[in-house]
């Protein structure tokens, strides 16, 4: 518990204190946000706002995690948490390359779509391969499993029985989950504070899940005898790394809340999506992520529906503009109103996801 609280507190203080320094440095270096020419005209005032703020909270989460372990003995640094960090940093690097290209050329497009996907797939494939290694010497559990999961592994969706084909399908599944989540958070990052607050709420679910799985782990002497235990490699350390990242995001949100003084950029958005996907894979809650991160799914879905409808009807639109938050912006909603209402929706999805997880345990 000390490690968990320390990780969150250190991450929060780091981002809260370091972000103003980063803003001044980024302004000096010319790391200002370019604006889409086809975006809402109200966003013109954001041109030049320091971007790549993701560098701050990614660093803050690492500092928080490792200091949390120094302060709170008893919980070893685990392969599972390091794999979450791999996804956070790896996807963040892909985003950084995209952001750096934008700021250097001062255009709203950085890497091409396929270049970003290639980078995401490279990181996610490395994660998937490593996650199937590092078996615990006592339980034999690896960080990830070959089964697709909901609130725990689904036995009849264990792909290991297909041999080599099954392993390939596992790699494809993890890649699909990671790329979709990473891009989902990125699409959501179109309003000040929107992606930051929504991700904090999603991470809160994984903090609860990791802590609860730890107390109800099959190897735990304190687990309830009335209900089935959880087969997860390092649930408590997953909660610690999620807390460090959440705390760091809370500190960053102080400066990123509307009107934002700094923007997370693709550096932050892609990194956060990668971390959420990793937490879902390693906590055996992959399909539950669709509910926990329901806002990301809705907003990304609005883009897909808009484009499909536009092509099918040869130019007609369902929304005034996609993603969905821009639709409401063009309808006259204030940006802060959109952000807060969407946070509420994200919170509802998070509560439903945690509720399903807990009810599933009760019914086991």
UniProtKB/TrEMBL annotation:
Its EC number is 2.7.8.13. It comes from Microlunatus parietis. One of its GO terms (cellular component) is plasma membrane. Mg(2+) binds at residues 186, 266. The chain crosses the membrane at residues 48-68, 80-97, 156-174, 194-215, 236-256, 262-282, 287-310, 340-361. Its main location: membrane. GO terms for molecular function: metal ion binding; phospho-N-acetylmuramoyl-pentapeptide-transferase activity. The lineage of its organism: Bacteria, Bacillati, Actinomycetota, Actinomycetes, Propionibacteriales. Keywords: Cell cycle, Cell division, Cell membrane, Cell shape, Cell wall biogenesis/degradation, Magnesium, Membrane, Metal-binding, Peptidoglycan synthesis, Transferase, Transmembrane, Transmembrane helix. Pathway: Cell wall biogenesis; peptidoglycan biosynthesis. This is Phospho-N-acetylmuramoyl-pentapeptide-transferase. It comes from the Bacteria.
């Amino acid at each position: 518990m000390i490690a968990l609280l320390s990780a969150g507190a250190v991450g929060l203080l780091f981002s809260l204190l370091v972000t103003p320094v980063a803003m001044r440095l980024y302004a000096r270096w010319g790391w200002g946000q370019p604006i889409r020419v086809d975006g809402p005209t109200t966003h013109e005032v954001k041109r030049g706002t320091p971007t790549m703020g993701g560098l701050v909270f990614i660093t803050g989460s690492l500092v928080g995690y490792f200091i949390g372990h120094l302060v709170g003995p008893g919980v070893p640094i685990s392969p599972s948490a390091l794999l979450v960090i791999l996804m956070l940093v790896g996807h963040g690097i892909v985003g950084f390359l995209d952001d750096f290209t934008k700021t250097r050329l001062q255009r709203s497009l950085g890497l091409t779509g396929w270049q970003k996907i290639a980078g995401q797939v490279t990181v996610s494939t490395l994660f998937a391969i490593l996650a199937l290694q590092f078996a615990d010497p006592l339980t034999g559990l690896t960080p990830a499993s070959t089964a697709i999961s909901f609130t725990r592994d689904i036995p009849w969706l264990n792909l290991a029985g297909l041999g080599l084909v099954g392993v390939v399908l596992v790699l494809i599944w993890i890649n699909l989950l990671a790329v979709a989540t990473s891009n989902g958070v990125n699409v959501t990052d179109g309003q000040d504070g929107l992606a930051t607050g929504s991700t904090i709420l999603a991470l809160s679910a994984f903090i609860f899940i990791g802590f609860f799985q730890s107390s109800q782990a099959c190897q735990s002497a304190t687990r309830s005898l009335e209900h089935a235990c959880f087969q997860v490699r390092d649930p408590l350390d997953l909660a610690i790394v999620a807390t460090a990242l959440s705390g760091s995001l809370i500190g960053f949100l102080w400066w990123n809340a509307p009107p934002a003084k700094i923007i997370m950029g693709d550096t932050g958005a892609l990194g956060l999506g990668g971390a959420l996907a990793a937490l879902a894979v390693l906590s055996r809650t992959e399909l539950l992520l669709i509910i926990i991160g329901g806002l990301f799914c809705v907003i990304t879905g609005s883009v897909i529906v808009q484009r499909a409808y536009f092509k099918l009807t040869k130019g007609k639109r369902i929304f005034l503009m996609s993603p969905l938050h821009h639709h409401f912006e063009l309808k006259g909603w204030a940006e802060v109103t959109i952000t807060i209402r969407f946070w509420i929706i994200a919170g509802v999805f998070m509560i439903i996801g945690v509720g399903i997880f807990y009810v599933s345990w009760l019914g086991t």
